[in-house]
Design a protein that fits this description.
alpha/beta; 37 helices; 47% helix
Length: 959
C-alpha cells in the first residue's frame, strides 16, 4: 500500500466490479480517482482509450488531467490522453456525437448555445409559445404578492427562463413530448407542446444546447445498436466524480456505456447533493448499489485532510442530528451513515467554530465583522486577505452588498465577480456610452422603444452610460473627434462604416480604453477583462441577426436590436465578471461567493453570513409530470425535500473551512437567525470571548491550482511567435476575433475534404462522385453559414467545389495509402502538454506521410507564412515519432488553389525538426512566464504583414 494513502482509499483503488466511494469533504477523492486510473493502466494493463473519467466541471477535469499526467510521467508511463474519454458529461457527449456523427440527427457545425442564448432564442419566439393552450397556467405572466395584495408582473425574459427550465428538465428526464400532448391534463399538454415548439426552433437555427448534447448522445446509444456495441467495446472502465450531482439521463448514459460489464466506479457524497434546481437527483448515488444485485462494493473515506476536528464535528452534528426533522421515514434512511470522520490534523487547542453577532444593530454588526477580518491580518493570523471567504445564499442580497461596502470603506478589497456589478463599472459605461454616442438614430429609437419597459432600470442605465461617456470625452478629445467623424460618414451614406465589432476595436484603440490595454499588456487589468467580455457579447450577437443584409454587413436597425433587445436582456440576465479558475482566491482580496459557487473550494477562514435563510418549498411540477408520464416516483417524499436540501446546502458551506468557521448574523427577533440556525449559533462562542486567541491556530496560504497548459502549434505557439501582445489579448484576455468570409471559405473546403477522407476510411469510395460530394459541400455550407451568420457568393461556392474536385482528381482513384484523418495527438512534457490535430496520415513504403491542407495559393518561397506552415508539419512529425513510434516519411502541404502543382514538400531533416521543437519549448516557456509585453516590430512606413488585418492594428500603430 502506498504510504500516502489510507486503507479505505487503498480498498477503493483496488476494488473490482461496480464500486461506490462515499467521499466527504476533504477526504481525498481526487487522489483516489487518479490512483484508480493509474492502477488500471499500470497494473491491470488497461489501454487509456478504454477508460472514461467524468468530472462535474471543466475546472475539475483540468485539475484531474494535470495531476494524472504528472503521476504518469513520474512513473514513466506514456499515454495519449486524447485517447482517454475524460471531461464533463457534455464534453464526452460532444465527443461521442463527433465519433458517430453519421448516426446522429444533427446537421454539421451546429451552434452550441449556453443558457443565455437558449433563452434568447425562446424570447424571440415567445409569441408562438403564448399561443399554446394552457400556457399561462404553466408560465404565468404575473403573481399576487401576498404581503401587499398587489399583482406583480413577471417580465417576458423571466418567463422564457422558466420555459427553458421546464424543457431542459423534462428532456433530461427522457419524457416523450408526443405522449404528453395526448394527455387529458392541460398542464401536461401545454408542457409537451412547449417541448415540441422549442425543438423545432432549435433545429431551424441549428442550435444545440447542453441538454441537447446529452439527449442526442442518449439517442444514438439507445436507438442505434451498432453505436452502443461499438462504444461499449471501446469503453471498458467508467469512473464518475461527484455522482450525487448527476441527473436521470446521465445515470442512463453511464449504464448504457457500462454495457452490462459492471466496471463502473462512482465517487460522491450524498450530503453534498445541492444541484436539484439543475435537475440533479440524490437518488442516483443512494440507489447505485441496487443496480448490481448485491455485488457492488461500498467504500467510505473517513479521514478528512482539509478541516480540523472541531469543524468536522460541527458539520457532522449539523447533518446527523438535525433538531427539527429526521433523515428516516417509515424505516427508510435518506442518507448514508458516515460513521466517525477523523481529521488528519487532529483536534485544535481552542474552539474553531465561532460566531459574530450584534443585536438588532446593523452598523454594529458590520463593524464587528470588519474588525474581525482586519484583526486577523493585523495580528498576523493570516498573511493575505484571500484566506477569508464569505458565503451567502446570494451575493446580490442586501446583507452581502452592505458587508462588501463596509469592508471596502476599511480599505479591505473585495472579490465578488457574481455580485451584479458589471454594468456599474466605469469602463463598461464609458464604452457602451461611446457606442450610443456614435448612433444618434439608435438613441432616438430607444427613446420610443416599448421593449425597454420590460426590463427595470435599463432606460436609465443607457442615459447614464451616455452622460458618463460624454463627460469622459471632455478629457479625451481624440475619441470624440473620431466618433464625430464616423457619425458624419454614416449620416451622409446612410450605412454603417463598419460592423459593430470592428467599430468596437477602433474605440478601444483610443484613450481612455487604450490605457487599460496598456495595463493588461504589463500585467493584470480588471477593466480590460470587462471590455473583453463586451467584445464577446458583440461577437455572439451575429448568431441572432435574422438577415445579414448582403454577406455580413450590419445595419443601423441591427444596432437598434443590439441595444433594445440583446444587450437589454444581458442587463436583466446579469453578466458575471472575470473568474480565474486557477487562482480562485485573488491575492489581497476577501472573497464573496454564493454557496453553490463555493462547491469544491476551500479556505482557511469561512464566514457563513446568510443565517436568516430558511428552508423554502420546491417546485414539484416536473417531478409530478415525470411520475405521471413514466411511473418514476420521486425518491424522497415531496414534503421533506426542502428540509433535506437545506441541510445539504449548508453542510457544503460549512465544510469549505480549513481552520476557522464563523457564523455571522445581526440578531433580529423573528428574522435572523432563522429557527434552523438558532441552536447551532448558541452552541458556539462569540469570536471575542475571553481566552480566544486565533494566533493559536494555523492558517495555511491559499495556493492557486496550477493546471498543466496545452499548447498546439497553430493556435498558441505560432500566434505567440507572430506577436506576443496579440497572444495575450486574444488568448489570455479572450478578446473576440472578427470573423470573415475567408475563414468561412477555408473551413468549408477543409470540412468537405474531411468528409471525403472519412468515407475512404469507412471503405465507401463508391460515394466519391461529384453529385455526392456537392451534396456534402452544401450540407456543410448550410450548417456553417448558420453558425457564422455569413454567406458566400455563388462564384465562391463554385470555386470551392472545383478545388475540392481538384483534390479528388489529384488522387486518381488511389486512396489505398489513407490511414487516419483529423487525427489528434498529444505529448505530455514536464511543464505542459504539446498537442495537435493532423489533417491526414497516410502509409507509404513503411513510413507515415503527414499531409496538411491549405486553401488558396502557395505562398512565395522563403515567406514567413510558408515557413510557419513548415514549422507546423515539423511539430507533427515530432508528435508522430514520439507517440506512434512510426518512422515519418514526407511532410506535405496540399494547396487547394493550385491546379498544376498543389503539393509542396517540406524539408523534414531531423535537425530541422529538432530545431523547431526546441523553439516550441522556448516559446511555451515564455508563455508560461507571462512574457507578453512585446509586439511586432515596424521597420518602415508600411505596417508589418502580420498587422495588416489584425484587430489591434489601430491600437498598436496609432497614426
Amino acid at each position: 500500500m502506498n504510504p500516502t494513502e489510507n486503507k479505505a482509499q487503498y480498498d477503493a483503488i483496488h476494488s473490482d466490479g461496480p464500486t461506490l466511494v462515499i467521499a466527504g469533504p476533504g477526504t481525498g477523492k481526487t487522489y483516489t480517482i487518479i490512483q484508480r486510473v493509474l492502477y488500471l493502466i499500470r497494473d491491470k494493463k488497461v489501454r487509456p482509450e478504454q477508460i472514461m473519467v467524468v468530472t462535474y466541471t471543466v475546472k475539475a477535469s483540468k485539475e484531474l488531467i494535470t495531476r494524472l499526467t504528472n503521476e504518469l510521467s513520474k512513473q514513466g508511463i506514456e499515454v495519449n490522453l486524447h485517447e482517454m474519454y475524460i471531461g464533463t458529461f457534455h464534453h464526452i457527449c460532444r465527443r461521442l456525437l463527433k465519433e458517430f456523427r453519421e448516426y446522429t440527427r444533427l446537421e454539421r457545425n451546429f451552434i452550441e448555445t449556453d443558457q443565455f442564448e437558449q433563452q434568447y432564442l425562446v424570447y424571440e419566439n415567445l409569441a408562438d409559445f403564448e399561443k399554446i393552450p394552457g400556457f399561462d397556467n404553466v408560465v404565468p405572466s404575473s403573481y399576487l404578492n401576498r404581503s401587499t395584495g398587489m399583482e406583480v408582473t413577471i417580465s417576458p425574459w423571466k418567463r422564457c427562463k422558466k420555459i427553458c427550465e421546464y424543457v431542459n428538465r423534462l428532456s433530461e428526464e427522457l419524457v416523450n413530448p408526443e405522449d404528453m400532448v395526448r394527455e387529458k391534463d392541460s398542464l401536461i399538454r401545454a408542457l409537451g407542446w412547449m417541448m415540441i415548439r422549442y425543438r423545432k426552433l432549435a433545429k431551424e437555427k441549428n442550435f444545440l444546447d447542453f441538454t441537447g448534447l446529452q439527449t442526442e448522445a442518449y439517442y444514438i446509444l439507445s436507438e442505434k445498436e451498432q453505436v452502443r456495441k461499438e462504444a461499449a467495446k471501446r469503453i471498458r472502465y467508467i469512473l464518475v466524480d461527484e455522482y450525487q450531482d448527476t441527473n436521470y439521463i446521465q445515470e442512463r448514459l453511464v449504464q448504457l456505456l457500462g454495457g452490462g460489464k459492471g466496471n463502473i466506479f462512482v465517487v460522491g457524497d450524498d450530503d453534498q447533493s445541492i444541484y436539484r434546481f439543475r435537475g440533479a437527483t440524490v437518488a442516483n448515488i443512494l440507489r447505485f448499489p441496487d443496480h448490481f444485485g448485491g455485488s457492488c462494493h461500498v467504500v467510505t473515506l473517513n479521514r478528512n485532510y482539509r478541516s480540523n476536528q472541531g469543524i468536522i464535528t460541527f458539520c457532522m452534528k449539523w447533518m446527523a442530528q438535525p433538531s427539527w426533522f429526521s433523515w428516516e421515514r417509515k424505516g427508510k434512511l435518506y442518507r448514508y451513515r458516515k460513521g466517525r470522520v477523523l481529521s488528519a490534523s487532529g483536534e485544535a487547542a481552542m474552539p474553531t467554530v465561532v460566531r459574530i453577532t450584534a443585536v438588532n444593530n446593523e452598523p454594529r454588526y458590520e463593524k464587528r465583522v470588519c474588525d474581525f477580518v482586519e484583526n486577523l491580518k493585523k495580528e498576523g493570523c493570516i498573511t493575505d486577505y484571500n484566506q477569508v471567504a464569505f458565503l451567502f445564499d446570494s451575493v446580490k442580497g442586501d446583507n452581502s452588498i452592505r458587508l462588501q461596502y463596509a469592508l471596502k470603506q476599511r480599505g479591505i478589497p473585495v472579490y465578488a465577480p457574481r455580485s451584479g456589478y458589471f454594468f456599474k463599472r466605469k469602463e463598461v459605461a464609458w464604452f457602451l456610452g461611446s457606442l450610443l454616442y456614435l448612433f444618434p438614430k439608435v438613441q432616438k429609437a430607444l427613446e420610443k422603444s416599448r421593449e425597454l419597459g420590460e426590463t427595470e432600470g435599463i432606460g436609465g442605465a443607457y442615459r447614464q452610460f451616455l452622460i458618463m461617456a460624454e463627460t469622459m470625452m471632455k478629457d479625451h478629445t481624440e475619441l470624440k473627434r473620431w466618433l464625430d467623424g464616423e457619425k458624419k460618414k454614416m449620416d451622409s451614406s446612410g450605412r454603417l462604416t463598419s460592423n459593430l465589432l470592428p467599430l468596437a476595436y477602433r474605440i478601444l484603440s483610443m484613450e481612455p480604453f487604450s490605457s487599460f490595454l496598456d495595463k493588461a499588456a504589463e500585467g493584470e487589468c480588471g477593466e480590460a477583462r470587462n471590455l473583453s467580455t463586451i467584445t464577446r457579447l458583440i461577437s455572439r450577437f451575429d448568431c441572432f441577426i435574422e438577415e445579414n443584409h448582403g454577406y455580413g454587413k450590419e445595419t443601423v436597425n441591427d444596432i437598434i436590436i443590439f441595444f433594445s433587445r440583446y444587450l437589454r436582456l444581458w442587463y436583466e440576465n446579469g453578466v458575471g465578471e472575470y473568474e480565474d479558475e486557477e487562482a480562485y482566491a485573488p491575492s489581497g482580496q476577501v472573497s464573496f461567493l454564493n454557496i453553490h459557487q463555493s462547491k469544491g473550494l476551500e479556505y482557511p477562514v469561512v464566514i457563513a453570513a446568510s443565517l436568516d435563510e430558511y428552508p423554502r418549498g420546491e417546485d414539484t411540477l416536473i417531478a409530478r409530470v415525470v411520475e405521471k408520464m413514466t411511473g418514476r416516483r420521486s425518491y424522497e417524499p415531496y414534503g421533506d425535500i426542502r428540509d433535506f436540501d437545506f441541510r445539504r446546502k449548508y453542510y457544503t458551506a460549512f465544510s469549505r473551512a480549513e481552520s476557522l468557521l464563523v457564523l455571522a448574523c445581526d440578531r433580529k427577533p423573528g428574522q435572523s437567525p432563522s429557527r434552523v440556525f438558532e441552536k447551532p449559533l448558541e452552541s458556539v462562542p462569540e469570536f471575542d470571548a475571553p481566552g480566544l486567541d486565533f494566533k493559536d491556530l494555523s492558517f495555511e496560504p491559499v495556493t492557486a491550482g496550477r493546471f498543466k497548459p496545452r499548447f498546439s502549434f497553430t493556435s498558441q505557439v505560432a500566434l505567440y511567435e507572430e506577436c506576443p501582445l496579440k497572444y495575450k489579448l486574444n488568448k489570455i484576455y479572450r478578446f473576440a476575433s472578427p470573423r470573415g468570409l475567408s475563414l468561412l471559405y477555408g473551413t468549408l473546403v477543409h470540412e468537405v475534404i474531411e468528409d471525403i477522407h472519412r468515407a475512404v476510411i469507412r471503405r465507401e469510395m463508391d460515394k466519391l462522385q461529384p453529385a455526392t460530394i456537392y451534396a456534402w459541400m452544401m450540407a456543410d455550407y448550410n450548417a456553417l453559414s448558420k453558425t457564422e451568420n455569413t454567406w458566400l457568393s455563388r462564384s465562391d461556392l463554385d470555386r470551392a467545389f472545383q478545388e475540392i474536385l481538384g483534390y479528388v482528381s489529384y488522387r486518381q482513384g488511389d486512396w489505398s495509402m489513407v490511414k487516419e484523418a483529423e487525427y489528434p495527438l498529444e505529448l505530455v512534457k514536464d511543464r505542459y502538454i504539446m498537442d495537435g490535430t493532423i489533417d491526414l496520415l497516410q502509409d507509404k513504403e513503411g513510413k507515415t506521410d503527414i499531409i496538411d491542407f491549405k486553401t488558396g495559393h502557395r505562398p512565395k518561397e522563403g515567406s514567413s507564412l510558408l515557413e510557419r506552415y513548415a514549422g507546423q508539419l515539423r511539430v507533427y512529425a515530432y508528435l508522430v515519432e514520439q507517440k506512434m513510434g512510426a518512422p515519418v516519411g514526407r511532410l506535405l502541404l496540399y494547396f487547394t488553389g493550385e491546379e498544376d502543382r498543389p503539393i509542396y514538400e517540406v524539408d523534414s531533416r531531423p535537425e530541422l525538426v529538432e530545431e523547431r521543437i526546441k523553439a516550441f519549448d522556448r516559446t511555451a516557456e515564455r508563455i508560461m512566464a507571462e512574457d507578453f509585453n512585446h509586439r511586432v516590430e515596424r521597420k518602415g512606413p508600411e505596417l508589418p504583414e502580420a498587422c495588416r488585418s489584425c484587430q489591434w492594428r489601430y491600437y498598436c500603430w496609432k497614426g
